[in-house]
Amino acid sequence: MTLSADTSYSATPLTSRELYIRLLGYVRPYWRTFALAIVFMAIAAATEPVFPALMKPLLDNGFGGKTTGVYNPWVLPLIIVGVFLLRGVFGFCADYALAWVSNKVVLDLRNDMFKRLVQLPTTFFDNQSSGAVMSRIAYDVTGVTGAATGVLTILVKDTLAVVGLLSWMFYLNWMLSLIALVMIPAIALAVLSFSKRLRATSRGVQRAMGEIMHVLEESIEAHKVVKIFGGQFYEGKRFAAASGTQRRQAMRQTIAAAALGPVVQLFAAVALATIITVAIQQSNTSDQTTVGGFVSFITAMLMLLAPLKRLTDINAPLQRGLAAAESVFDLINQTPEDDFGTTVLGRANGNVMFRNVHLRYPDASREALAGINLSLPAGKTVALVGTSGSGKTSLANLLPRFYHPTSGEILIDDHSIETLTLASLRANIALVSQDVVLFNDTVAANIAYGLQGITQESLEQAARAAHALEFIENMPQGFATLIGENGVKLSGGQRQRLAIARAILKNAPILILDEATSALDTESERHVQAALDVLMKNRTTLVVAHRLSTIEHADRIVVLESGRIVEEGCHAELLEKNAAYANFYRMQRTTEKQQENRQEKQPLS
User: Fold this and answer.
1) What does the DSSP assignment read for 505-516?
2) Angle formed by the axes of helices 260-285 and 174-181, to 10°?
């Protein structure tokens, strides 16, 4: 079976309309609450014309000596208070309901993003900054709610308020109302002119936030290296540069958004000046406009400015939300790992075969692996040896389908791994690497990671086999002890033994072992090697070897150079050949003896 190592993960960009429809799809499950919020907003908006409507009878009749009915000095104030109380209660209910929907949308989007994140292929993580990916999930997704729910709030509430106020204005004086409406097309043109700039600056802000997260992540994870090598000033410059870029993008966004306000106000001022001029002329030539009617009209018009401004400013949160939605859906749309296999592999015997396997990474100048033919019999140990870049890790990464070969095939028990479901394939493989990965959780959770229904007895048996039970029992809460981020509270040897215990508990028939003892002291290495001996027993083991002294008893040793197999055999056979492996072995032995001599000559403190 031939597969390309290069996979494209970018989807066709969605239009603004498609983005918005997809966003509303996340609102749909909560449509009842959202509809209730719309009703509350409609009731609150319906009260907008009431206040200016009260101005006309108040000024025309209220100061003329009438003290009965609505003109009673106690009734009108109570009506005003009642109107604003009604608006406040329904406005609060609408805001609460809408916030509930917004937070549900954010929760669903984050969950979908994370679900897709853990399904993505290894090549995605090779090409992405983890800080930028974290920024998408932590930051970008919150901007989406501005478009998904906030914009709809403004559209519904303020549109109803504008319609109500305009209706009252037309009732009072249609000629003055037409003058007020002249400014709407001019405002619309101004809004359109700023749309593209707002979207572009919103994208820039999100990219800049991703870079800030990237610098932060590296500085936190590498804080010891930063301190020991005096990198504080350099990291400070990197962070300042990323923060400066974000500030500049934010200011460009602010300029584009803030410029709309003065434009709207200018058109409104021109319209107001014209209306005042016409109203004065109407008052002087006829009784068409009364004092109360004019004040009521002006009050309605001034109240109209706030919802109109929000409606014109709606483009800023809309464009920010759509830019955030592009980022969010770009991650959700990423193509997950290929899982087209249909065969469910039970517990494998462990016979592994590489047949004419080639691998070329995207944009690589040469093949990482070229014509690999290799057999791993069930229950045997095969070690891969070679210089850095020879293809050892690439070969090991193909077995669990972290990458796909460019050509050739890999078989387990005569099944091509491409025909197997990913879950069943990986259920048969355990991994212990030099770079141990642990989680900020309890000892028990790290050993039983990914497994269900594990008993305390099983945990203890795995820990005992991994030579870890003694130090675990000496910890404050035993198996319930939190070990910190990536096991920071443990020594290197303890971390390795927890990883081995995890692999023992999984009890997979195939083991990938990236030499786990190269960075340990003698005592830790002794414990870890003993644990590895238990782990490797009766398992098909592929060892990526760094220290040749640890693989002398391997059933077969394979020497790689530039992605090709140049030698294979057992330890004694390869030494007798006196070729590549023998040279590696002699060089390492010489280096190890020199290190031992230096340690012996060091004075005791």
Assistant:
1) HHT-SEEEEE--
2) 160
